[in-house]
Amino acid sequence: MKLVYFDVYGRAEPIRMLLNHAKVEFEDFRIGFAEWPALKAGDNPVLEFEQVPVLVLDNGKVLSQTKAIMRYLGLQYGYLPTDAYEAYLVDSYLDAFNDLMHPFALARWEKDEEKKKEILANWLANTFPKFLTAFEKRLESQGHSKFLVGEKLTIADFSFSSLISVIVYNELSETSATLRETYETFPRLKEYAHNMKEIFNDYLESRPKRPM
Amino acid sequence: MSSYKVHYFPGYGKAEPIRMLLAHAKIEFEDVHYTPETLPAAKASGNLEFGQMPVLEKDGKFYSQSQAILRFLGKELGYYPEDTYHGYLVDSTLDFINDLTNARFKANNHPEPETKKQLLADFYEKVLSNFFLAIQKRLEANSSPDKIVGDKVTIADIALAAIAYSFFLNENNLSKTEYQEVLNKFPKVLDYFNGLGELLKEYLAARAPSPW
């Protein structure tokens, strides 16, 4: 199995975390930003939508689209609930993470410094707390903060704990300290982060460190 | 018998796949619309989990995140494959449709006129072309030429029908000429969309016109 992505955490990190936890051997192929334009333009059959991450399976099939890959792997390795409503909760978490991060990502690629600061400030003051409030509520109605859904790790946990390890608890990220201040005002989410750090500690310590 | 309500704005947008799925499955539902005036009350009700719409109300319970809703209903009503790889194909279709609408939104809503013009040109020339090409390739690789995955209607067909009849083949869409100029270069995809139109003929004839 070969995972193809840039040399950052980004959208590939939940996949890396899952495969690591499932003890599945895979090649963690990282593209340099300089090589990317040529790779993208080359009508490469591996890049179905000219995007990464893609996962190349042992049978030669190529999977693209992060959430679809996560769901596929979740089914293969037992990280999806069988109950329909719990599956819905996991799915809607993944969708919500995308909604949460989309404006944050836009801020990163904004070239105008003033505009960039504005987008980020707005995201921090409004979007980030809005979603954290909703997630905190879900943990409250669940009655525990061990996992996002149910009694075991699901793809929602890989996605979210990967996310917070990259933007909230990342020494190499310049916005991390500010985000952590907001994040830790949510007690159940804070407890959840602590639980996840315990489960994934070895992986988090040994993986290559990146700012994003 | 369950009762269903779809809560959204009057446009097609992210609710249309849900409406189309229920219609195709011949399930009666109430189509609840909101305006800027009635929206604040909806947000205050606590039923919009992430402060966003659409939400699905099923027997008094609220579900958010359009893709997760589509999958939840799809599984319940027989529009989601059993096979893992087919499931992946369906999921990634939903994801790449989302990528397209995000790119469109970003281009169309850019505040700077020169950048907007450039982004839109790029959207039609590259992003939209690649989108149609990817669909064409998937149709060619599929066992049936008139379904996107497998031999029966899935939520992937429904989601593609929704975007086809909101954007490209929507009489009232302001950019329909630009869309069709690109779509006409992909006759297999146009045929496929027309086929979906046949499947949803009654629903399309009965729904109110909308530019989006």
Automatic annotation (TrEMBL), chain A:
CDD domains found in the cross-reference section: GST_C_Sigma_like, GST_N_Sigma_like
The keyword Ion transport belongs to this UniProt entry's keyword annotation: no
Domain of life: Eukaryota
Matches recorded under PROSITE patterns: GST_CTER, GST_NTER
Gene Ontology molecular function terms on file: glutathione transferase activity
Domain called GST C-terminal: residue spans: 83-212
Organism of origin: Stylonychia lemnae
GO biological process: glutathione metabolic process
InterPro entries: Glutathione-S-Trfase_C-like, Glutathione-S-Trfase_C_sf, Glutathione_S-Trfase, Glutathione_S-Trfase_N, GST_C, GST_superfamily, Thioredoxin-like_sf
Residue ranges of every copy of the GST N-terminal domain listed in the record: 1-81
Pfam family, one: GST_C_3
Alphabetically ordered keywords of this record: Transferase
Keyword Transferase: yes
Full protein name: Glutathione s-transferase
Gene name linked to the record: Contig12205.g13038
TrEMBL record, chain B:
Pfam families attached to this UniProt entry: GST_C_3 (PF14497), GST_N (PF02798)
GO molecular function: glutathione transferase activity
UniProt record, GO biological process: glutathione metabolic process
PROSITE patterns membership: GST_CTER, GST_NTER
Entries under InterPro entries matching the protein: Glutathione-S-Trfase_C-like, Glutathione-S-Trfase_C_sf, Glutathione_S-Trfase, Glutathione_S-Trfase_N, GST_C, GST_superfamily, Thioredoxin-like_sf
GST C-terminal domain segment(s): 83-212
Keyword annotations from UniProtKB, A to Z: Transferase
Domain GST N-terminal: 2-81
Coiled-coil ranges from the UniProt annotation: none
Signal peptide residues on this chain, from the entry's feature table: none
Name this polypeptide is given: Glutathione s-transferase
